Amino acid sequence: MGCLMAVILAAGEGKRMKSKKAKVVHEIFGMPLVEWVYRSVKNAGVDEVVLVVGHKAEEVKEKMGDKALYAFQEKQMGTGHAVMQAQEYLNNKDGYVIVLCGDTPLISSETISNTINYHKENANSATIITAELDKPDGYGRIVRSSDGSVKKIVEHKDASSEERNIKEINSGMYCFSIKDLTEALKELDNNNSQGEYYLTDTIEILISKGKKVGAIKVEDSSEILGINDRAQLVEAGGIIRNRILKRHLDNGVTIIDPASTFIDEDVEIGIDTVIYPSTIIEGKTKIGEDCIIGPGSRIVSAQISDRVEVKNSVVLESSIDDDTKVGPFAYLRPGSKIGKKVKIGDFVEVKKSVIGDKTKISHLTYVGDAEIGSNVNLGCGVVVVNYDGQKKNKTIVGDNSFVGCNVNLISPVEVKSNAYVAAGSTITDEVPENSLAIARSRQVIKEGWVEKRRILNKQEKDQSK
């Protein structure tokens, strides 16, 4: 059978993007364009992937890491020249290679698999991925022989009037038998007005040698859409977004308003969860069953268990256990771990803290770098004062404790289990178990102070005249 490889062309500058970044690292739903192509390739069962990089090569390598092998194209001298740079990985190998573009994020793993299978079944030297367009102007046309094989690819400017009526176009993506491709690459030249080496010329070379060249047409022409500017980036994003939403709908998730809902590719959502409008779910978020998410929530790389409600809130890189309610207008910052049957209410911020089961933090509270036990009540306006100006310090509140409204817990400090802290207290020392802590000034009443102050103010004004 031989090896199964892919070469992804990712060296272009993409001037029309008008960006300081390499074109292929622009993202759609949390992934660079080239990553979408890479994943489709790997999901199609390809063993080895070579990325041909050039413009801002280090930026592309930083995004893709060690997932792929790399070939470097110092000067962008055409698609054929780009594939030549990967030839060291192809030499002396037997098998198949699929050549794709790093700026075509809509190409599916099914299309890649179908192309490879079609190529093998028909014993082709090369197979072209094609599409049928109602308006094919500007594209190379696929001219077929009577047996369905490819006779030639003719560019629009060189096509006859009859050939221009052909609607099947070349996508610029191919499957080759490796040995045939490497032989054809040896004969490529750049005797053209651009002085470039074109991969399409390998098709002409193979046909001239009597090799069999076929073409497989994609059912959905959007799969071949290349990203050349920001408008096409938006267009491709809309198509991917609809694919993702449909997958979740098919899996038993209710999405009330798909038009205002954005979900990244790697998100997992359980059945009978309801996603309300204006919700954004990003990264590697996993949401369980029977949850209510939104409206107006943003969740990033979070782990959310079953029957959780997150309303009008932000959850970043945190976990929420079963039957917990978050929001509205709560903010869970990275590193927070929220237990079962917890209430995180309105305008509560939690940062890098553990909140035990059945604890209630109902409103207007900040908890940072803390361990809050089970069945604890933190009243309105509680602040964990975790930063001393140099370092973050830890606060611990034991199980079944009650912390009253407007309490400051000055870290590092511990409130033991079953303790009470009176409202308005500033706690700097340990609160023992089963005790009540009161740390506030005694109330003082000064009778007639307001009238005295008014008279004094009048006198000061008169003297200043």
Summarize the structure.
Homotrimer. This protein is an alpha/beta fold.
Structure description:
Acetyl-CoA binds at residues 386-387, 423, 440. Its main location: cytoplasm. UDP-N-acetyl-alpha-D-glucosamine binds at residues 9-12, 23, 73, 78-79, 140, 155, 170, 228, 333, 351, 366, 377. Its cofactor is Mg(2+). One of its GO terms (cellular component) is cytoplasm. With 465 residues, the chain is α/β, with parallel strands linked by helices. The protein folds into three domains: 3-224, Spore Coat Polysaccharide Biosynthesis Protein SpsA, Chain A; 251-312, Hexapeptide repeat proteins (UDP N-Acetylglucosamine Acyltransferase, domain 1, 3 Solenoid); 323-465, UDP N-Acetylglucosamine Acyltransferase, domain 1. It is built from ten helices and 39 strands. The strands form six sheets. The chain has a 16-stranded parallel sheet that branches. A nine-stranded parallel sheet has the order 14-17-20-23-26-28-30-33-36, with no helix packed on it. It has a seven-stranded mixed sheet with strand order 5-4-1-6-10-7-11, with helices on both faces. β8 (141-144) and β9 (150-154) form a beta hairpin. α7 packs across α8. The longest helix has 21 residues, at 230-250. The radius of gyration is 32 Å and the shape is elongated. The protein starts with a strand and ends with a helix. The model has no long low-confidence stretch (mean pLDDT 95).
Keywords:
single chain, 465 residues, alpha/beta, Spore Coat Polysaccharide Biosynthesis Protein SpsA, Chain A, UDP N-Acetylglucosamine Acyltransferase, domain 1, 3 domains, 16-stranded parallel sheet, 10 helices, 39 strands
